[in-house]
Each structure stands twice: as structure tokens, then as C-alpha cells.
Amino acid sequence: MDARIDSRKFKKVSRRKLLKLAPVLAVGAFAIPKLQEPLLKAGLGLSDWASARLFRSGHLATTFSDGELTPFEKFPINGYDVEDPGVDFEKWTLTVAGAVQKPGDYTLAQIQALPKTRQNTRHVCVEGWDVIGRFGGTPLSEFLKLIGADTTARFVSVECADDYYESLDMATALHPQTLLCYEMYDQPLTREHGAPVRLSIPTKVGYKQAKYLTDLKVTNVLERVGYWEDQGYSSFYGL
Amino acid sequence: MTEAVVEVESKTGEVEQAVYEHPWAVRFSHWLNSVSLLVMVASGFQIFRAFPSFGAKIPQKDLLHWPKALALGGWLGGGLQWHLTFMWIYIATGLFYLGYQVFSGNYRQVLFMPRDIRGVWPMAHYYFFFGPKPVARETYNPLQKLAYTSVLGLGVLSVLTGLAVWKPIQFSWLAWMMGGFHWARIWHFAVMWAILFFLLGHLVMVVLHGWSNFASMLTGWKKNPEYLER
User: Which of A213, B42, B97, B114 ranks highest by number of CB atoms within 10 Å?
Assistant: First the structure.
């Protein structure tokens, strides 16, 4: 206490202590254009990894009463390019491939013969709006059982009639509320909402819930993740 | 805190006193947090811009349109990338800071305690209503402690509300505590404004108190602090 030191020595000490703040400058790496993209990609990857770790099959999305439903005509239609890709319902099949025992083409009747679930769940868009809709269909897990899917595989990927494509982690694919959806508000899916079959996944944001499905694949390797994901959106985006 | 007092001879030969006010861990957290906080706010505005409302899409009622110049990320996907990257830095800094304060005992410097209550009004009276200046006794006056303790609480709330917005199903209990998903989003937004309100006051005070005070958050040392004057 009260030790006298001369100002030059004091300044030297301060400077050395100042250097300890250097790691703060490390975040400046984000300002370097060449480093920014890989750093942000790594950050998003960390968030996706954590999201997958936080996901619990037993955690169910809130379900709502019929009175809380957003009226059907107010349920937004967010096609990414067309609202009706002109699917021929007569000839439509879901083409199954990948790590499954029974690959091939599955008809709507085959899907509708599986156990049916109806649920009023919230549809959350990455943009920031959300609505409550009534969705009917078969749990995707039932369909995966039907096709003899290897559920130890990592992903289920889908392709759509409008060139949209998506993929799901297997845990979410097996979640009891994840539907191969063919009804909304107790009516067959309309074309704008993804007829004849779309995904309804209340534990994911909207862009993962692809419409107008044509192909489904069970796989360990994804060549591409999804239409929006491949442009920089989160791959997992679970709620 | 007086164990860190030293006397320094300045160039003119004057003897000055200096106190080591801010340990390295505090300064480190302060500056790292100031960067990540601004990134979180700016990228948050980018995310908010995509749909400036908190309700259903139809009818859309835009709350306020935030200027693009103040948003970070360029587009919604970019804003999310920044937000979901810097949240880790923001959280890690917060945990590091809180851990340091608790284990070093340094929290006593900043934590607002019941005994500080009676000192709040005289200080506010001095700052805002030209009252007499209360005697400085420690590093932070009671009003300062109240502000710093509050903003630390807001920091914790910003993370908890953010978690509820990001994972309303996995952390449904958090969303429930906030009154549901929609309310969690509104709370998250409100907490940000509260932090910005603190920041405004903080910056005004920094400007009013001059260079030596500002430099203390860089070097840790404050020259001739008021509470040493007798």
C-alpha cells in the first residue's frame, strides 16, 4: 500500500495489462471478408449441432383447440416459386429409394391406409409469422415402417414437384407429430398447400415442411440439404 | 479495494494516486460483450425486418420499420447466421464474467444490495435534479450499482427469452413462463430495448466523466478516484 512507483513503470505495467485484452480483437476476424463466411458457417453449424442435441422425441409441440385455428382462407401460402406445379393426381406416386427394404412407387391410397393422425399445431415461419392449422395424415414413422426403412440411417430426404427439396434428421422424422400430410382442415390438401402429399412437422420451421412430395429417400449422406439451407439457412432449425 | 492503491509520479512531478479498479477478466468481458451485444442487436434488427410484427401473417401489422443501414447480415439468412453465431460468444462471455465475479468475490463491487437502497435517491437527485453531490465512498455509487446489476439481469433475460423464441418446444417451460411463444418474442424484443436504454445512459455517463474514467476500463487503473479524496 502506498508504494511509490514512477510513472514510466506504471505505464509499462498498464500496457502489458492492456495486451491481455488482445483476444477481444480476435472477434475482429469476423470483419475480414475472407474469414467471415467460414466463421459464420461454423457458428451456424455449432447452433445446428446443439439443436440436434437438445431435440427430444418426447417433447411434443403444443396442440390447440378447434376454436384457436387460423381460418383456412387466412393460412398463408408460401410457395417458393409456383403455387401449383401441376401435379397429375391420377399418376402421382411417392418414389421411395435409399436404405429401405421395399423401394419403389407408393400410391396415395397406400399412404392413406396407414394409421391416421389429425392435429391442430402451430406453423412457424422463419420470417417471423406463425399460424395455427389443422393437419391430417399418417405419421412419417408409420410410412418408414411400411417401406422398411433403416431408421439407424441419419436422414430422410425428399424432392418435390416444384424442384424444391428438403431433408430431415432421423430423430425428427420419427417424432410422433411428424406427418406425411394429405389433409388440411379435414379436407384433402389443396394444390397451393402442397397436394397431394406434404410434410407437416410442428417441431420445425416452415421451410422444412416441403409440399408436393414426389420422392423420398432414406440415407446417411446428403448431397444437398435443402433449398433454403443450401443458400445459408440453418440445416436443423428445430423449434 | 484499497490494497490496489499506488502513488504515481506524473511527468510534472506531481504525485497522483491510482487504483486498480477493473480486473482483467472484467475488462475482457466488458469489451467482448460490447462487440457481441452490438452484433446481436444489429442482426436481431435484420431478423425483425423480415416480418416487423409479432402476430400471424394476415392481417400483417408492421410494428416499426427499421432502417436497413442499422441491420447486420444483409438478408434474413445472413442475420440469422450472425445471431446464431454471436449468441455463443455472448453467452460464453456472460458465463465467464459471472463465474469470475462470483469466485473472485469481485461481485461486491457491482452487486446492488439492500443497504444501497437509501443511496439511490440522493444520487438520482444529484444527476437529474441538480441536488447536492453525495460523498463517493466506493468504486460505484448506489445508482451505478443499481444500473449495472439491472443490466446484468437483463443480459440473463435476453438469453432466456431468446432461448424461448429459438426453441419454444424443447424449452416449452421457458416459453410458458413468459406467457407463451408470442409473449416470449415480445419479451425478447423489450429486453433488447431495455439494454439499449441502459447503453444510452451508460454512454452519456462515460462522456461526462472523461478520459481517465474511460481509460480505466482499458488499463484497469483509475487515477485519483473521488472516493480517495479526503
Answer: A213
Residue A70 lies in a domain: yes
Q: Does A54 touch chain B (CB under 8 A)?
A: yes
In terms of Cα–Cα distance, which of A113, A213, A112 is closest to A168?
Answer: A213
Q: Which residues of B touch A41 (CB under 8 A)?
A: 81
Cell of A226: 435443402
DSSP B183: H
Closest CA to A198 of A92, A61, A115, A66: A92
Domain extent for A113: 58-231
Residue B221 in grid coordinates? 487503473
Residue A52 has which C-alpha cell? 440436434
Choose among A44, A54, A122: nearest Cβ to B81. Answer: A44
Q: Is B181 exposed, middle or buried (0-12, 13-18, 19+ CB in 10 A)?
A: buried
Cα dihedral B156/B162/B164/B170 (nearest 10): -100
Where do we find the cell 442499422? B70
ipTM of the complex: 0.89
- List all residues 6 or more positions away from B19 whose beta carbon is below 8 Å from its beta carbon: B1, B2, B4, B5, B139, B221, B222, B225, B228
Record: contact A127-B87, CB cut-off 8 A: no
CB contact under 8 A, B88 and A233: no
Q: What are phi and psi of A60, to 5 degrees?
A: -95, 145
pLDDT < 70 stretches in chain A: 1-18, 79-81
pTM, entire model: 0.90
Cα A86 to chain centroid distance, Å, stands at 25
Query: Looking at residue B69, what is its pLDDT?
Result: 86
Helix (H, G, I), strand (E, B) or coil at A168: strand
> Which residues on adjacent β-strands are paired with residue A132?
A122
What does DSSP assign to residue B92? Answer: H
Could you tell me the domains of chain B?
Answer: 24-210 (1.20.950.20)
| Count of CB atoms situated within 10 Å of the CB of A25 | 11
Indicate the pairing of strand B221-223 with strand A4-6: unpaired
Q: Which of B3, B8, B39 sits opposite A7 (nearest CB)?
A: B8
Chain A residues inside the 8 Å CB shell of B76: 126-127
Examine the pLDDT at B108 and tell me if it is beyond 80: yes
CA distance B117 to chain A (A): 31
What CATH number is associated with residue A74?
3.90.420.10
- Count up the domains in chain A and report the number: 1
